[in-house]
Amino acid sequence: MEIFEWIIILLLGAALLAALARRLGAPYPTFLALGGILIAFVPNSPQWTLDPHLALTLFVAPILVDAAYDTSLRDLRDNWGPVTGLVLAAVGTTTLAVTLTARALVPDMPWAVAIALGAIVSPPDAAAATTVMRQVKLPHRLLKILEGESLLNDASALLIYRLAIMAAVGGSLSFTSFAPVLLLTVVGSLAAGVILALVTQPLMGRIRDVPTALILQFALTFGIWIAAERANLSGILTIVAYAMMVARRGSMRMPARMRVPVFAVWETAVFILNAFAFVLIGMQLRPIWVRLETAGTSFSYVMTALTVLAVTIVARFVWVMSYNKISRMRIERYGFHPPRPMTRPTVGSGIVISWAGMRGIVTLAAAFAIPETLRDGSPFPYRDLILLTAFTVVFGTLVVQGLTLRPLIRKIGLTDDDPVGRELRNARVHVYRAAIDSIKHDDTLHGHILRKEYDAAITLNESGEQNGTTAELPGGPLRRQAIAAARQRAFKLRSDDVIGDDAYNLLVEELDWAELNAGAAREG
What we know:
This protein is an all-alpha fold. The protein has 21 helices and no strands.
């Protein structure tokens, strides 16, 4: 009963902290990190522990599925250069810099352990950054670069992390064994994710019960991750490939009455997982601190953690600003020819991306997942230092960068011309015309009224003066027929890259609510 009471208290506390963050215009993970610190010093607070093997599965798998559903393949292709640079070069630069720093400060730390520490703190979490950026209307291109980085850099960082842990636990890992492992992991994981999506989609498409669909979605998320890890593949790459394939091909199969509650439950689940990740790491801080004080290493470990925090921030600046400079020089020489209108790189955009490197749940989960013992039964070297450093980096970046990112963006003066809004208005014109075509032979009074309504929405969106939606208007069978045609047209627009996933998701949400209203009118 006591555990249940603490769970209720912690969930209420997380909800209050998130509400406070929204009120202050700050990213909610920053306030969750503050809550984690407080937990460490609350008298008689519980001391829950988490199985290291469970950490990545529990926290990272659903987070990645949720992120992959929102990722636009078109925007990834448009920004493949900067995204690839951040996913590979920035992660590699940070890992190398932290590895060398850790070895310099703690000479007895094995190289494999130092590399694991570098990989743990290298992947930023875009959730905090994008929360701030959407509030200040940052250029859409920067948002897409950060979201693409957040989805894919976890894979590159945790591949390094996995190999380092294998070397630390097993004793060594030569290049001849490293290369086949890496190749098999990358290719096999991507192939497995795609195949699993194709196999499971027909089953999921037949389900029309919300609770059953949710249970199967979470079961598949965790099951695919566990199966991939058991097969010595990358759970991250497998789950990302699976989720992106399902999101791309399966969105048309789910009816509106399922999609709206399912998405709401997933959003809530992601928030709860973020909250408990910070709570659990906070619970580990007090016993870690007691052990460090007993061993007389608390001061040196704190200084090491703070130094790694500084190196992590600086390493990202070094790579991002170097790439930014090269990009601007190339544009000056050859011009800027993007596949569609977008903001060109500037010094200001480079500074914002550099400063938007807040760490989050993946760093915490990876630190949790370090085994407590080696193969011979001896304790894993410097595990307490790694846990302390991981939380210091997460807490430091979320507080220092998270609370200053919004003023920095306003100071630089970056603005957004709302490309998603333009695509959304253009898409509404197309889908409402498709809706009109689907009922053009209906000569009833309802048919005439619907066609006039959709004509009015088209006029409003073509004028650009205001958005014209139909979600709040009454429904009926004829409207549901028109909405079905409109949704098909929206799916075709996304498939043809006429609109991106952001505009598509907003449009489908509008059509879902219109369909639900139509169903409510029928029931009434």
